[in-house]
């Protein structure tokens, strides 16, 4: 018959809970669908809840383009002269009534300028919509990195639990043989319990981050992130061709609007004539006569120069914003590349210089502990050093991918994934 003391039962319960959690996680992962970063970003962008608002703004912009191309409306005028005066004009017998048709002759260049501003405004709406979708894609990339790092933290937590359980088994054996004090077994049990809690928290955190990522496209977190993606450092060697990001697209669209507005204000300097034609009726003898006339404003005081200067200044400011944004982009890409090299170098050094030595130290301490040459504190200390090194490695990898995501955004690496906007109607 085999009997277990209280410590042994508690340890067995903790170990069983850990194994159950591991099997639960493995069972979930077995049915999970592998998902790539590009697929996650595309799903998030296509499920953008603000896309409908962008479509409505495009409808409004198209209507604005149509409206800008219309000519000024004509007008009909009615005038009555020589009525209700004095002497022979005290009644209506000498009235002269004129019915006229008036049409402002707006120059074609003015309509073209208005249509140009409206078309540039539509381009701005498209760019702003793409910028909103771009922001959601960036959120998806950030959460993807968080999820990948959380999975890696689960792996480290599971390794920590395995180390703690192995030490617990050896320490329990020595305690039962009266070779170590009872509190050594209690400390080993506490270390296993702490490792189990850390693993449970890591699993819960990984599930929560995946759920948060899936909410970006309204789906379920039934996907898996392959560990190889998190381990891959080869992207540092990829020299992405620079393309305009949606943020730059917005700045360029704003510049086009400002430039188009210059033409509008310039054409307004030229005055448009108004022609009129009508028929005059003479009440006295019942005769009719045609009347033709015209008018044109005299630009004596207001030549619209202030509005022209304002629109030119706006266009120059927009061009300056683009130039500054490009300079900042180049500078930050260079700085980001240096950081990526540093992170990759640290990961490689941890792999080559720290983890192998820490693993060897754990083996050596365990062997010495088995022979009675070390204490349980030496065992736990060696294990903590190894776990800390692996945890640091995960942290640096996360920093690497976070910095890589920043460089991706600066270079416009994922712009091609943006959903297409509706064509101009």
Report the portion of residues in β strands.
5-15%
Number of helices: 9
What would the CATH topology of the largest domain be? Outer membrane efflux proteins (OEP)
Q: Element order, helices and strands?
A: HEHHEEHHEHHEEHH
CATH class of the largest domain, named Mainly Alpha
CATH superfamily of the largest domain: Outer membrane efflux proteins (OEP)
Mean residue pLDDT: 87
**Relative helix content:** 55-70%
Instruction: Assign an overall shape.
Output: rod-shaped
Concise synopsis of the structure shown:
With 425 residues, the protein is α+β, with helices and mostly antiparallel strands.
Defining key terms:
single chain; 425 residues; alpha+beta; Outer membrane efflux proteins (OEP); 2 domains; two-stranded parallel ribbon; rod-shaped; disordered N terminus
Structural account:
This protein is an alpha+beta fold. It folds into two domains: 6-71 and 106-269 and 304-417, Up-down Bundle (Outer membrane efflux proteins (OEP)); 74-105 and 270-303, Outer membrane efflux proteins (OEP) (Single Sheet), CATH 2.20.200. It is built from nine helices and six strands; from the N terminus they run αβααββααβααββαα. It has helices spanning 6-30, 37-46, 51-68, 108-176, 182-214, 227-231, 246-267, 305-370, 376-411, and strands at residues 33-34, 75-81, 96-104, 223-224, 274-282, 288-295. Strands 2-3-5-6 form a four-stranded antiparallel sheet, with no helix packed on it. A hairpin with a 5-residue loop joins β5 (274-282) and β6 (288-295). α1 runs parallel beside α5 and α7 (246-267) packs antiparallel against α8. The longest helix is centred in the middle third of the chain and has 69 residues, at 108-176. The termini are far apart.
């Amino acid at each position: 018959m085999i009997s277990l003391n209280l410590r042994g039962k508690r340890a067995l319960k903790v170990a069983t809970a850990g194994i159950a959690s591991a099997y639960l996680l493995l069972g979930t992962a077995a049915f999970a669908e592998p998902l790539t970063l590009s697929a996650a970003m595309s799903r998030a962008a296509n499920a953008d809840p603000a896309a409908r608002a962008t479509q409505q703004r495009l409808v409004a912009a198209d209507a604005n383009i149509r409206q800008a191309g219309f000519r000024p409306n004509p007008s009909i005028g009615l005038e009555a002269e020589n009525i209700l005066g004095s002497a022979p004009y005290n009644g209506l017998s000498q009235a002269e009534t004129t019915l006229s048709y008036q049409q402002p002759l707006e120059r074609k260049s003015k309509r073209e300028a208005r249509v140009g501003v409206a078309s540039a405004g539509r381009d701005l709406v498209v760019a702003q919509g793409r910028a909103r979708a771009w922001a959601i894609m960036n959120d998806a990339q950030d959460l993807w990195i968080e999820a990948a790092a959380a999975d890696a933290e689960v792996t480290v937590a599971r390794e920590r639990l395995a180390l703690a359980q192995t030490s617990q088994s050896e320490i329990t054996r020595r305690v039962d043989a009266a070779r170590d004090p009872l509190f050594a077994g209690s400390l080993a049990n506490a270390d296993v319990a702490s490792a189990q809690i850390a693993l449970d928290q890591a699993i819960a955190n990984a599930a929560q981050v995946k759920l948060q990522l899936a909410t970006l496209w309204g789906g379920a977190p039934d996907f898996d992130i392959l560990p190889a993606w998190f381990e891959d450092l080869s992207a540092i060697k990829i020299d992405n061709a620079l393309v305009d990001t949606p943020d730059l697209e917005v700045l360029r669209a704003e510049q086009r609007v400002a430039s188009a507005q210059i033409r509008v204000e310039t054409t307004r300097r030229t005055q448009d004539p108004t022609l009129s034609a009508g028929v005059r009726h003479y009440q006295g003898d019942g005769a009719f006569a045609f009347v033709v006339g015209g008018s044109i404003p005299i630009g004596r005081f207001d030549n619209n120069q202030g509005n022209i200067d304002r629109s030119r200044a706006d266009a120059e400011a927009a061009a300056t914003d683009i130039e500054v944004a490009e300079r900042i982009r180049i500078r930050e890409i260079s700085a980001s590349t240096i950081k990526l090299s540093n992170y990759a170098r640290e990961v490689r050094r941890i792999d080559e210089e720290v983890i192998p030595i820490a693993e060897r130290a754990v083996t050596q301490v365990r062997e010495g502990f088995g022979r009675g040459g070390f204490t349980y504190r030496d065992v736990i200390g060696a294990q903590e050093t190894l776990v800390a090194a692996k945890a640091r490695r995960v942290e640096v990898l996360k920093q690497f991918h976070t910095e890589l995501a920043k460089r991706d955004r600066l270079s416009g690496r994922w712009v091609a994934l943006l959903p297409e906007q509706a064509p101009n109607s």
